[in-house]
Amino acid sequence: MYFVIFWQKLFAMRKFIHKLLMIVGGILIGVANGFLGGGGGMLLVPLLERIFKVPTKKAHATALLIILPVTIASAVIYIINGYFKWDFFLCVSVGVIAGGIVGALLLKKLGSFVIGTVFALLMVGVGIRMIMGK
Amino acid sequence: MSAIIIYIIIGIAGGIIGGMGMGGGTLLIPLLTLFTSAEQHLAQSVNLIAFIPMSVVALGIHIKNKLVDFKYFWWISVPAVITSAIGAFFVKDVQSKVLKICFGAFLIALGVLQLIFIVVDIVKKYKKIKKNNQNDFSKGTNYVKIYKTIFLGEKYMQNTFKHGIHPDGKKYLSENAEIESFPDPQFVYIPVQQHSGPPSEPVVTIGEKVKAGQLIAKAQGRGCNVFASIAGVVKGIEKRPTATGKCDHIIIENDFSGDRQFFTKLVDPSREEIIERVTEAGIVGMGGAGFPVGAKLKTDNKIKTFIINGAECEPYITCDYRLMVEHPEEIIKGSLYLAKAVNAENVVIAVEDNKPKGIDSLNGVLSSGKYPNVEVRALKTKYPQGDAKKLIYSVTGYKISATRRSNEFGVLVNNIHTAFSVYTAIEGLPSYSRVMTVTGEAINNPKNLIVPNGTLFSDLIDFCGGNNGAVEIISGGPMTGFGVLSDKIATTKTTGCLLLLPRKEAWLDKPGPCINCGRCARACPSLLMPMYIDLYYKNGNLDLAEKYGALHCIECGSCAFVCPAKRPLVASIKQAKAKLKERSKKK
To answer: ipTM, 2 decimals?
Structure first.
């Protein structure tokens, strides 16, 4: 009985809980982006998709909008701190833009489940390698 | 120099992953630190900065496409900006090694999270596919199909069928012409046989005065009622040629009184009422086959899905497309009546993706949320998508052999114009007119018209600006239509198109010998070998022609379309079919 009442209360508070989730999610995303220099989108897209039930395409687009100011803020502070090299930056971003177009085109050809699985396993592998160190 | 190349390659790798929507940055950083001498802090900084120009461009496109939801912006962004600034500020005091370990842990956590999501998705999808295929008549669960749908993506083998051809659509001629009313002509010649089935029996006498919508010929057996399409006087009943043969025509002379007769409007009709009204109003399949819809709806099998055929795969024809654009709500209501008549659970309106405006128009009505059981499905454009069995395969994935009927599989197909006519019949209008496309390069003003049955082709041609050097007049589409010898032939309930082709487009070349290239076999959507049927029929060997499946031909014309020797393959298969049917009757 108590349990039912608990759920009813929770249901009544769902707007509040959603806002709370947004703020908590925002804090986590900020920490990831500022401290680790990326990965905010990886957290934000599933948050939007699975908890707020935003359709996949919309979730990706909305995530871009939210991440953009966060990235600008942390990028500015990184530059102020002196982590910036012109040549390095230029080469990598040329590659990123070229690769981005190829990737977007490739996405249409391949099943998302295969890519998703390979990508997840790759992340775990790289993560272990990074912790172990060279 | 080599460092630059490595940087670019790593950038491309990160970009590809990012372009796939996987958060490329998260892998760009470890790639940079593992394969170059870059320090962790610097790699992070590069990732952040490289992200900005890409996302600005992408965001611009997304906002233009209205994909961005601003609702979540402030609540997530503000705390995120604050914490990210704090994080970025403190990061310079952290050692590179420690930061690397933190990042590694974060990556592992993300990877595991991703794997969990994938497993959850696979389980969900598996359940959904299993649930959807409960009525599948194939034995047991189709694991191969489930595996392919999950791992090769939703699109695998969906929304299209095997083989088929891509003829030039030519829809531009009439696709922007709004539907107009054709003014009632002086005379109409109404055929008593406008459907597949026994001819109807005339119930009017010569000299009798009739109103538009009055019953003039009664259905016999599995037939359909025929109604007067204009108000006037019956002038005679005589045998005249139709597009496909000969039958009695009831000739009515217009008295221009404009009297009309309607059924009573049905409000919220029951299942039986719908079937009765559809039969009474003489509605037949408007796509071309002319099978009486009332008979189709009286099925004993349990129907799960009702497919509304809006493929309109034939070149030139645009009447269904115009209906979709101008009367989406009526089509959806009509298809729901049809679905109710057979207790179908859901309705799929299948439209080829070369008609984006039609799809948008239907979706616009559906977005109100009033019709939850209706779905609009965009199919890949390919001819002959509109054939019932090909359409069922495209939409549901069921393969139905030539000897079985679709209702055994819980699926029924009807044309989009039929759905529209059912709606108007429930509103009270008997089926005596239809939307028709008058088109072709040899007509001056291609139009989409509401034409009363029995109008002569010559009247339509005059109304559309006249004949401009047509060498061939076709009743129906260019692929499955019937070439007619004169323009004094009357329209019926199933004539969706009147096509006038100039010399350039018409096919008057002499056929060459078969070179055994096998293109027809590759094009045949029924998986037949048209060259052999043609060969054996021409040799007079009907048994072998039957063995090669002449009776299973759907007469779509794909084989003749691709034939490099211009052999009239469909024509000979049609003759073989007719001969075979005659022979089986004799036996």
So the answer is: 0.86
Same domain for B414 and B444, yes or no, is no
Query: If you measure CA to CA, which chain B residue comes closest to A54?
Result: B69
Q: How many whole angstroms separate alpha carbon B115 and alpha carbon A132?
A: 22
Chain B interface, mutation test: which of A96, A108, A128, A129, most B Cβ atoms within 10 Å? A96
- A95: pLDDT strictly greater than 90: no
- A111 contact B CB<8A: yes
Q: Which of B502, B532, B559 is the last residue of a domain?
A: B502
Q: Please compute Rg for chain B using Cα positions.
A: 30
Residue of B nearest to A40 (CA): B23
Task: Note whether B194 and B315 are same-domain residues.
Answer: no
B94 against B184, higher pLDDT: B184
Cβ distance A78 to B45 less than 8 Å, yes or no, reads yes
| pLDDT of B256 | 86
SS3 for B1? Answer: coil
Q: What's residue B122's pLDDT?
A: 81
Work out how many domains chain A is built from and give that number: 2
Q: Which two tokens stand for residue B108?
A: 């592992």
- Domains: count for chain B: 5
Are residue B277 and residue B415 in the same domain, yes or no? Answer: yes
Q: Judge if B464 and B580 occupy the same domain.
A: no
Q: Is B13 on the interface with A (CB under 8 A)?
A: yes
B508 within a domain of the structure (yes/no): no
Provide the pLDDT for residue B438.
92
Query: What does the pLDDT average to over B108-137?
Result: 76
Q: What is the DSSP letter of B409?
A: G
Number of A:B CB contacts under 8 A?
Answer: 367
Q: Which of A67, A84, A101 is the last residue of a domain?
A: A84
Range of the domain at B51: 2-93
Does residue A76 sit in the same domain as residue A94?
Answer: no
Q: Among all residues of chain A, which has the CA nearest to that of B63?
A: A61
- CB-nearest partner of A57 from B18, B33, B67: B67
**Dist CA B261 CA B247 (whole Å):** 26
Q: Are residues B337 and B423 in the same domain?
A: yes
Closest chain B CA to residue A129:
B104
Query: Does residue A91 share a domain with residue A80?
Result: no
Please report whether residue B161 resides in a domain: no
| Nearest alpha-carbon partner for B310 in B410, B395, B368 | B395
Residues A46 and A75 in one domain: yes
Full strand arrangement of the beta sheet holding B215-218: B201-202, B215-218, B226-227
Domain presence at residue B98: no
Least confident of A10-19, B153-162, B189-198, B527-536: B153-162
Burial readout B24-36 (b: 16 or more C-beta within 10 A, e: otherwise): bbbbbbbbbbeeb
Q: Is the peptide bond before B384 cis (omega within 30 degrees of 0)?
A: yes
Cα A75 from Cα B312, distance rounded (Å): 54
Sheet holding B374-379, edge to edge: B374-379, B346-352, B305-310, B411-415
pLDDT tens digits along A31-47: 888 888 877 778 888 88
- The predicted model gives B39-61 an average pLDDT of 81
Any chain A CB within 8 A of the CB of B100? yes
A61 and A14, same structural domain?
Answer: yes
Domain interval for residue A38: 1-84
The pLDDT tens digits for B142-160 are 566 666 666 655 544 467 8
Question: Same domain, yes or no, for A43 and A93?
Answer: no
Nearest by CB to B44, from A26, A38, A65: name it: A38
Residues A13 and A75 in one domain: yes
pLDDT of residue B531: 93
Q: Tell me, yes or no, whether B471 lies in a domain.
A: yes
Contact list in B for residue A124 (CB cut-off 8 A) is 107-108, 111-112, 115
Structure tokens given for B334:
């009509």
Q: Are residues A112 and A73 in the same domain?
A: no
State the average pLDDT over residues B123-138.
64
Do B348 and B315 belong to one domain? yes
